[in-house]
Amino acid sequence: MTSILLLGSTGSIGTQTLDLVREGGSGLTVSGLAARASWEDLLDQAREFSVTHLALTDPEAAALARPRLPAGTHLHEGPEAMQELILACDFDTAVHGVVGCAGLPASLEVLRRGKRLALANKESLVVAGEHLMAVARDFGAEIIPVDSEHSAVLQCLRGEDRARLKRVLLTCSGGPLRLTPSESLRHVKPEEALQHPNWSMGPRITIGSASLMNKALEVIELHHLFGLSPEQIEVVIHPQSIVHSMVEFVDGAVVAHMGLPDMRGPIHHALHSPDRPPSPVRGFDLQAFAKLEFEAPDPVRFPALKLGHECIRAGGDSACVLNAADEVAVQAFLDGKISFTDMNQVHRTALDQRQGDASSIEALMAADLRARAHAQKAVQNLATSGPASSGPAAPEPANHP
Ligand code: MG
Questions:
Q1: Residues with CB under 5 A from ligand 1 (ion)
Q2: Could you give the 3-state DSSP secondary structure of residue 202?
Q3: Residue 354 C-alpha to ligand 1 middle, in angstroms?
Q4: Contact at 8 Å (CB) between 387 and 345?
Q5: Cα distance between the two ends of the chain
Q6: How far is Cα 10 from Cα 16, in angstroms, rounded to an integer?
Q7: How confident is the model at residue 386 (pLDDT cuts 50, 70, 90)?
Q8: CA separation (Å) from 259 to 73, 182, 276, 288?
């Protein structure tokens, strides 16, 4: 049996992980569950899977849950609740589906325990990839990506000599606005940007799939996980989301990983790898696989895309700053404060004010806070200057790194 600790259990990754646990003969048990504030769902899950170790990071939610806890249940609460749960629980693999930079301390804690980290919280790698990979090495821990593209790359590289890898072709559906004309992008409403054609995911990543910021963050994630240079990473638009990524070797062979767009696939892989036990994920489907298209991305309509490569080249705190700015920008867009294309200006403003120190996790957390303040300021300026300013993003200064 594999015992799992589920961080972000009430979100998209969490509930799809529990679907896999529910399957007869899954060989999975749940030893701990953590959520932010959805205490009623958390208690339902605790009852269904007989889990006695729980965490709620939101103190108000924890106060509501406490009088209703099943007998013998221990609840950790407050900002440190996830780290406490990681230390208190016995588990083999932590599935980490928390959204945002807030998931970083939990990633570090799991790795320091020398456990397997099934990582859907890509922000941990984006914000502090070098530190995270070093902690994994030092503590003999393993990071298995749950992001579908990175899971695909890992599977394509299995048994191969990494020195023979030429490049990775990171596929991207293009999102719900792939065919939207440039001049219409600034009028896109949150509900339109939230309509992902293929994948069922949370709101931040879905907006990121519409702006292609999610792909920029995935470029950074790929760089850290596999030690790739920016020149070895190429983004390819593939609207059907059947090819989850491809690797090209120096002999010209291109190996692709294919499957229906179903997050349970990469979660199942991360839980069982290198084994491949049966799963409820469906395999080849003639209709879905019949037509596979690839095209080059459009960097003019989607300027966020190139920021991934830019941040790898610039190094330091740039990826951390980009992530913080995007968390602020997405929330402001969802709240109706700024337009879809204004998000590009928020990213640019924060990146242009970055300071560069990434020598420690503390330095990065300080950079994250500064970037959020710069991004909030940019949001206020855009919001007060009104719709007239909500045009296409300003061109990038030529001298920017
Ligand atoms: Mg992905």
A1: 147-149
A2: coil
A3: 26
A4: no
A5: 49
A6: 9
A7: low
A8: 39, 31, 14, 9
The separation between CA 105 and the C-alpha centre of its own chain, rounded to angstroms, equals: 15
Residue-range domains of the chain with CATH = 2-146 (3.40.50.720), 160-261+282-389 (1.10.1740.10)
Q: Residues 98, 8: contact at Cβ < 8 Å?
A: yes
Indicate the DSSP class of residue 148: H
- How close is the Cα of 317 to the center of ligand 1, in Å? 22
Dihedral over alpha carbons 188, 178, 15, 277 (to 10 degrees): 180
User: Position 328: which residue type?
Assistant: V
259-274 pLDDT, tens digit per residue, is 999 999 999 999 999 9
Distance 216 CA to ligand 1 centre (A): 10
Residue 147 pLDDT > 70 = yes
Ligand 1 centroid distance, CA of 136 (Å): 22
CA 202–ligand 1 middle distance (angstroms):
12
- CB environment 118-151: b (16+ within 10 A), e (fewer): bbbbbbbbbbbbebbbebbeeeebebbbbbbbbb
195 CA to centre of ligand 1 in angstroms: 16
Task: Report the distance separating Cα 170 and Cα 320, nearest Å.
Answer: 21
Cβ neighbours for 292, distance < 8 A, ≥ 6 positions apart: 238, 240, 242, 243
Report the pLDDT averaged over residues 287-297: 97
Instruction: Please give the distance of CA 218 from its chain centroid, rounded to a whole number.
Output: 8
With a CB cutoff of 8 Å and minimum separation 6, the contacts of 137 are none
Is residue 54 within 8 Å of residue 76, measured between CB atoms?
A: yes
Q: What is the mean pLDDT of residues 347-358?
A: 95
> β-strands 243-249, 165-172: how paired?
antiparallel
Q: How many helices (H) and strands (E) does the chain have?
A: 17, 11
Question: What's the pLDDT at 197?
Answer: 78
148 C-alpha vs ligand 1 centroid, how far in Å? 5
CA nearest to 348, candidates 316, 306, 315:
306
Distance 186 CA to ligand 1 centre (A): 24
Residue 163 CB neighbours (<10 A): 6
Mean pLDDT of 373-379: 98
